[in-house]
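User: hey, got a sec? need Transposase folded
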Amino acid sequence: MASERLSERAWKQAIESTGLVLGVDDFAIKKGHTYNTGIHDLRGGTLLDILPGRKLEELRAYTRQYPGFLLLTPKAVVMDLARGYHTWISECFPNAIRIADRFHIHGYIIEAIQEVCKTVQGTLAPRAKAILKANHGLLHAQERALSAESKAKLDELLGYSDLLREVWTWKEEIINYHRCRWTNATAEGRHNRIKAFQRRHYFTRNRDHYKAGILVEYNRNRIPS
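Assistant: Yep! Here you go:
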């Protein structure tokens, strides 16, 4: 089968790569209900596999079922902030740099700042509201450029929003983007094509046929014959 030949070549290319960068990203089969996880060779430009689900136990089950996944030796893995992904990748590839995808981070940061400056502000006591208004610029500043006093103020501001505090806990993964500048932009771009494929093959209930069709769709022009 064409899908099997393409898949074998894609995996061979990824396993032999000396600078492999993986992308791990989910996409919806049925929005809000059913999801798949795609594994992408970002440097090679191929889609390596599609996993059912995105929960940690589903990811671990995939590793048990397909131990060949552990033959990969990625330099880095790009993903969003889902803890299940980070736990799974740290278990499989402890030496790989885990990168929080900057497109997801940008959205989280904007959401967090809006949470503080609009929603939370309306619930604060007058003193806290005044502090936030006077120091909101600290939310955009680079931490290393802040004085000790400013860092203390920033810590106080972060205490006003669980969402901002959550983003701050991912600081290392955010910084890793600047150490290894890869994003999941390619993977995100494929999602619209996957959705189009799903619409065209709406009545394909056989998962093997569904998966094979997507792999052929995205790898046939990426793998040398």
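Quick note: The mean pLDDT is 80. Let me know if you need anything else on Transposase.
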